[in-house]
Design a protein that fits this description.
Strand content of chain A: over 45%
Shape of chain B: globular
Structural class of chain A: mainly beta
Shape of chain A: globular
Distance between the termini of chain A: 36 Å
Number of strands of chain A: 11
Number of helices of chain A: 0
Oligomer: heterodimer
Number of strands of chain B: 11
Largest sheet of chain B: 6 strands, mixed
Largest sheet of chain A: 7 strands, mixed
Order of helices and strands of chain A: EEEEEEEEEEE
């Protein structure tokens, strides 16, 4: 089991560019989540999904979009990147909720 | 409005001694609490949890205590080991919220050899 994998590990974007952060889990978990962590702060929920085809906004969804066409994949799309989106992004999955398994993160810098 | 608070940003303890990490919450509807551990350049890993119907949960060297009246929980690590040096996040959830977690800012624990 690879668990939760995220690509890329690092990325530098220019203001206004777009990109997709990939997240895949091989544990057949229904629940998947996207968080961002800013320096010195806790994790904030961006979007989450309770199953394929079902997504919902978290605490900080503005500037992001998600889709969940399969159980395994939960990509996060950034449109028109802004410096405020500079952060570390974590994807997580969970079989029933609560205990979540996290990927290694993607460090994104927008300049 | 920060609903989960970890007011001490760091803690340093001697190897072999007890580490006590504190967490406070403001939303009395939270009914499930978790602790996560995070090493640099890695994702958080689940450590231990407790339901609001309990006041203590133990797993090896790790024990979590919950005081609902004070809206306070704490993580005890005994004995502390150098490998425990990491950032510890407290998180809370409430039933019916699709298990969305609200995280604190984290506490950096340093265990001195």
């Amino acid at each position: 089991n690879a668990g939760v994998t995220q690509t890329p590990k690092f990325r530098i974007l220019k203001i206004g560019q777009s990109m997709t952060l990939q997240c895949t889990q091989d544990m057949n978990h229904n629940y998947m989540y996207w968080y961002r962590q800013d320096p010195g702060m806790g994790l904030k929920l961006i979007y989450y999904s309770v199953g394929a085809g079902i997504t919902d906004k978290g605490e900080v969804p503005n500037g992001y979009n998600v889709s969940r066409s399969t159980t395994e994949d939960f990509p996060l799309r950034l449109e028109l990147a802004a410096p405020s989106q500079t952060s570390v992004y974590f994807c997580a999955s969970s079989p029933l909720g609560y205990e979540q398994y996290f990927g290694p993160g993607t460090r994104l810098t927008v300049t | 409005d920060q609903q989960v608070k970890q007011n001490s940003p760091s803690l340093s303890v001697q190897e072999g001694r007890i580490s006590i990490l504190n967490c406070d919450y403001t939303n009395s509807m939270f009914d499930y609490f978790l602790w996560y551990k995070k090493y640099p350049a890695e994702g958080p890993t689940f450590l231990i949890s407790i339901s609001s119907i309990k006041d203590k949960n133990e797993d090896g060297r790790f024990t979590v205590f919950l005081n609902k009246s004070a809206k306070h929980l704490s993580l005890h690590i005994v004995p502390s080991q150098p490998g425990d040096s990491a950032v510890y996040f407290c998180a809370a959830s409430l039933t019916g919220a699709n298990s969305k977690l609200t995280f604190g800012k984290g506490i950096t624990l340093s265990v001195r050899p």
